[in-house]
Design a protein that fits this description.
There is one protein chain. By secondary structure, the chain is mainly beta. It contains two helices and 72 strands. Strands 58, 60, 61, 62, 63, 65, 67 and 69 form an eight-stranded mixed beta sheet that branches. The protein is rod-shaped, with a radius of gyration of 59 Å. It starts with a helix and ends in a 14-residue tail after the last strand.
Length: 889
């Protein structure tokens, strides 16, 4: 009898060659052209199926529910159709006979190229950079599992995304990416690209979004600005201010003067000098700066009127060069062409008996003006007319009169005495002519005048003289007497409104009451103990014992609260008393009103959640009147007393307001908070997959994460292994706290068989037990697939381990048995072959071997020729046993 081993080999070869046989175990006997179809939805495609031989019953193509049978050509069938079904199936079926058939499914990928749109949205602003949320919308794309989205910044790849979802119909996908754009980058170009990676043979047509140009957005600011600028009248307007601004979006500029919005295109005149404020604003925030503008103009006379000046001989006259200009002009006086080297606006001159022409020239950097003052000297004639007087040729005789002292300075109300004597002997009368205690004596060479109180006078200009009468003459001599009185009152008051506004022009008045002599008076103005102005009375005519001095003030905000006072000082030296004859006014405290502003403010501040409100913002405000503060977030007025939470991070604007004006500033607040978890309690991971799980803690600053397993600290897993299943805890930490989360990691892996492929020897007629056992996570499903189901007992499917029994094994059971283990991670296959074990008669075996050799060689040649045509997958219909029997010669 033919040994079972030989019969098994023959059976195996016959299954490969015979028309009545199934495809098992060679899946490639049917050939599909093309093997993989990649077609765009709506396109026309073709599929052809080729069989290995002609001796089969029927070959057909199934496209969905439609069957195509080609009766013209026996060993192939083809079909062309339009892809209008996203989930189309195509299968080639070769029917061997009524019970056996081979099948092979075509792989068809229906795709749809998407449309791609990119959008950007700034979500946070920092001093030097802006955080953008970039969104890439990929619409109407299929299949999504073949989609790759690549992000580009300035032509360089910054991230690539792929998708694990498996779909066949078109879907819309939206992806987002956070990108920081620094101020130094100027403009960054962002785009995203969608690409379907279908198969190596399929063309790839990437679709790219439009390029989005983005740049860092930041609060505007000023740079290279002057604090003070001098300009020429009618040649400058504020839009020419030499100061650069920067900001993104580009800011607009508003100009303010004394709290009022003004037109920057108007040329400035001499009355426009003062402090100006520029404000730059964009959607991120605003900044302000203030500066002083001084409008310069050439000297000009205040009036064109010019009168001739007539004075008496010896009279002092004050010439005033009444010129205005800025910078303040320098003065140069000359008379009759000679430079007097006097740089003063007012010139005091005392003329003899000659008339003179005085010329004033006022000069500053922008020009000069001149004016001539003709001054005539006149005397009184008998008809009361004034004529010019010639120079004096003779001196009056003093007759040897001597005054001791010749000059006195006496305080009003104090005693005084002067002795008058003569060296000549023939004096008849010697005396004093005086409004108080006049004296005359005879035959005396000296006479003393005195008074207990110098106070009974009509005015302070007290005239008296000593006279001597001789036989042939009369002489007199006049002492120099200065009667002084310190003022009764010295006071400072404002001319007009008491309150001043920054940058305006105001006057303070110092009233000095009942003081003499004015010619010896000096008035000094003080601001906080610093002398700011000094003035002496000019053009004093007649009796005058009251005088006022005026100080012009252009206040700055720093002058608020400054103390102004004036000092009236009588300087009677060297003859007068050595004591200080100064009288001070009471202090005048300046009230300067000015537009509010911010100082010492941060551009960015990080705070802790629920522990900070805007009324605690570390920023000072100043202004007079004291300003009120309003707070805005996203252009909405908000309550500054509310504590900020993590969702309140962003750019805030503070606005300070008073009656003079308004100022605004913007700043970024980042609300930080402690860590917290919102993760699942269990995660499934794949062995040899990348470490980590999609469990990220929330917190700001971003917390650090520490891993623990079974209470022991471990390094963050980089790749998962089979032994990594277990309980873990994650600890997240940042400066504001700590949070922990416990989770279970289920490390899953594909099935693994305990044994490999084997061959088993069996004795004909005995039962054979086949065991298949596999491990995996999740536990795999195990299934035996056998060519002859009728002789197999036991469950065909099971979990992890399955045992079947081949009953009464014969040569028909020699085909390989396949065990398949499957779980969600993978699928593996194992084969077991049965080999018959007969009697051990060597010669008997050799004989049969020799008898089989010749037909076996012929059979192999036939099979090889047929295998060139047969490619595809064969399926057994196992409801019928087909026994193998030996044929007699």
């Amino acid at each position: 009898m033919l040994p079972l081993r030989m019969l098994g080999l023959l059976m195996f070869m016959l299954t490969q060659c015979g028309a009545d046989d199934g495809c098992f175990p060679d899946p490639d006997l049917l050939i599909l052209e093309p093997p993989v179809i990649v077609g765009e939805y709506g396109a026309s495609i073709s599929l052809r199926c080729i069989g290995p031989v002609d001796d089969f019953k029927e070959m057909s193509l199934w496209i969905g529910n439609e069957s195509i049978v080609n009766n013209d050509v026996r060993n192939n069938v083809s079909h062309t159709w339009t892809l209008t079904d996203w989930d189309v199936n195509a299968e080639c079926i070769m029917k061997l006979n009524d019970t056996h058939e081979c099948t092979k499914k075509a792989e068809i990928i229906v795709y749809q190229n998407p449309q791609v749109f990119l959008s950007t949205n700034p979500v946070n602003y920092f001093v030097e950079e802006t955080l953008y949320e970039v969104q890439c919308d990929v619409t109407n794309v299929a299949p999504v599992q073949n989609l790759t989205v690549t992000w580009y910044k300035n032509g360089e790849v910054i991230r690539t995304d792929s998708f694990s979802e498996a779909t066949k119909v078109p879907v819309n996908m939206s992806l987002s990416l956070m990108v920081n754009i620094s101020r130094g980058e100027n403009v960054a170009q962002l785009r995203c690209e969608a690409r379907l990676n279908l198969s190596p043979q399929a063309p790839q047509h990437p679709v790219t979004s439009e390029i989005s140009n983005v740049s860092a957005r930041y609060r505007p600011f000023f740079k290279d600005c002057l604090d003070h600028h001098s300009v020429k009248e009618d040649e400058f307007s504020l839009d020419k201010w030499p100061c650069e601004t920067d900001g993104n979006p580009p800011p607009t500029v508003n100009w303010y003067y004394r709290g009022e919005l003004i037109n920057p295109n108007k040329s400035l005149s001499r009355n426009d000098s003062g402090t100006y404020t520029a404000e730059v604003i964009n959607s991120i925030g605003m900044s302000q700066t203030s500066f002083l503008i001084t409008v310069q103009y050439a000297p000009e006379f205040r009036t064109n009127k010019r009168d001739d000046i007539i004075v008496s001989e010896g009279e002092t006259v004050t010439l005033t060069c009444d010129v205005e200009g800025y910078p303040a002009p320098d003065f140069e006086w000359s008379f009759d062409g000679e430079n007097m080297y006097e740089n003063t606006k007012k010139l005091n001159v005392t003329l003899g008996n000659y008339s003179k022409n005085y010329t004033c020239m006022a000069t500053n950097v922008l020009g000069n003006v001149t004016r001539t003052f003709p001054v005539q000297v006149a005397q009184v004639t008998t008809n009361q007319t004034y004529v010019a007087t010639p120079p004096e040729t003779d001196k009056k005789r003093d007759c040897g009169l001597k005054l001791t002292p010749s000059e006195i300075v006496v305080k009003f109300g104090d005693p005084a005495a002067i002795n008058c004597s003569t060296s000549e002997k023939d004096v008849q009368i010697l005396g004093w002519e005086t409004p108080v205690n006049p004296i005359d004596v005879e035959n005396r060479t000296s006479v003393l005048w005195k008074t207990d109180k110098v106070e009974k006078v009509e005015n302070w200009d007290w005239t008296m003289y000593c006279f001597a009468t001789f036989m042939d003459k009369q002489c007199n001599v006049t002492p120099t007497i200065t009667i002084y009185k310190t003022p009764d009152v010295v006071s400072v008051s404002a001319v007009g409104a008491d309150a001043m506004t920054e940058g305006g022009e105001y006057r303070l008045k110092c009233d000095i009451i009942n003081v003499t002599p004015l010619k010896n008076l000096t008035v000094k103005w003080y601001r906080d103990d610093e002398v700011v102005f000094t003035e002496q009375p000019r053009n004093i005519t007649g009796f005058q014992d009251d005088w006022s001095s005026t100080l012009t003030v252009t206040p700055k905000r720093s002058d608020h609260g400054s103390v102004y006072k004036c000092e009236a000082d009588l300087d009677l030296k060297p003859v007068g008393p050595e004591i200080n004859l100064s009288t001070f006014s009471s202090p005048y405290i300046a009230v300067v009103q000015y537009r509010p502003f911010f100082k010492d403010c941060l551009d960015h501040h990080s705070v802790k959640e629920d522990e900070f409100s805007l009324d605690k913002w570390p920023c000072e405000t100043d202004g007079n009147p004291p300003p009120t503060v309003d707070w805005y977030y996203r252009d909405e007025l908000i309550n500054p007393n509310k504590s900020l939470s993590r969702n309140d991070s962003g750019t805030y604007t503070a606005e300070v307001i008073n009656s003079i004006g308004t100022s605004r500033t913007s700043f970024l607040i980042t609300v930080q908070y402690g860590p917290s978890f919102s993760c699942d309690k269990q995660y499934e991971v794949v062995v040899n997959g990348e470490g980590g799980v999609p469990c990220e803690p929330e917190g700001l600053p971003p917390p650090s994460i520490t891993w623990f397993k079974n209470g022991n600290k471990i390094d963050t897993p980089q790749r998962w292994g089979q032994e990594d299943s277990g309980n873990y805890s994650l600890r997240a930490e940042n400066p504001h706290g700590t949070a922990e989360h416990v989770l279970y990691i289920d490390a899953q892996y594909a099935p693994v068989f305990k044994d490999g492929n084997i061959s088993m020897y069996v004795i004909p007629g005995e039962n054979v037990t086949l065991e298949c056992s596999a491990q995996g996570n999740p536990s795999p499903d195990v299934e035996w697939k056998s060519p002859l189901a009728g002789s197999v007992q036991g469950p065909a499917k099971g979990r992890q381990q399955i045992i079947i029994t081949v009953t009464a094994a014969t040569s028909t059971n020699a085909s390989p048995y396949m065990c398949v283990a499957t779980n969600k991670v993978g699928r593996v296959t194992r084969f077991v072959s049965l080999v018959e074990k007969g009697l051990n008669h060597e010669s008997y075996n050799k004989l049969w071997l020799l008898l089989l050799l010749v037909p076996l060689v012929v059979l192999i040649v036939v099979c090889l020729r047929k295998n060139k045509k047969k490619q595809g997958r064969y399926s057994f219909i196992t409801n019928t046993d087909i026994p193998l029997t030996a044929k007699s010669a």
